[in-house]
Amino acid sequence: MTGQAMRLSAVEGDIARLSVEAIVNAANASLLGGGGVDGAIHRAAGPQLLEECRTLGGCATGDAKLTAGYGLQARYVIHTVGPVWQGGTAGEDALLASCYRRCLELAAAHAVTSIAFPAISTGAYGFPLARATDIAVATVSAVIATQPAITRVQFVCFSREVLALYRQVLARTDHD
Ligand code: AR6
Q: In the annotation, is 134 catalytic?
């Protein structure tokens, strides 16, 4: 296993309860809340999170914005907007990769050393899970190679099936 691969892991659980410096939210362009991960994070963080989100003017697909974590154990929430799956020919792969890259760039800019990602776009936005997992792992792997300060990245999986898939893809990545 390379040093880089050791910085990546997959865990099963609720990202809103994780104790890391920054958690990533799979938000929508309004940044004003929603269901899935977004709902869980806003519920756990409390109403101040929405107050700060209101000041941000939304977020473009593929981009990310950072807020405080308020009631969360995490110090920061990095809100990103994944692409809605439209069949794969509307630039979805590049936009999803951009989400992971922008989140890590923002994390590094705020001296974050540990960060957790949900499986962006794979719920309400319908991105095929296996394809999204390959993009997530490949992008994070490539970006952290240039960001030595980020020492720990966790992929938080909401089911055992998703966890098994991430572990499979991570095991393949060990040889890179
Ligand atoms: N912790 C970790 N993973 C979770 C959690 C949780 N608490 N809850 C769900 N997942 P989704 P999207 C998994 O729909 O596809 C929202 O309404 C879930 O099983 O949360 O990017 C936003 O406001 C799935 O694998 O995000 C947007 O409108 C993955 O997280 C829209 O949904 C992502 O599912 C964004 O859709």
A: no
User: What's the chain's average pLDDT?
Assistant: 95
User: Does the Cβ of 123 fall within 6 Å of ligand 1?
Assistant: yes
Q: Is residue 108 helix, strand or coil?
A: helix
pLDDT in tens, 13-39: 999 999 999 999 999 999 999 999 999
**Which H or E run includes 106?**
helix 92-109
Identify the residue whose C-alpha is closest to ligand 1 atom 5. Answer: 37
Which letter does DSSP use for residue 84 in this model?
A: P
Q: Which pLDDT does position 2 carry in this prediction?
A: 56
CB within 8 Å of 119: residues ≥ 6 apart? 26, 129, 132, 133, 136, 155, 157, 158, 162
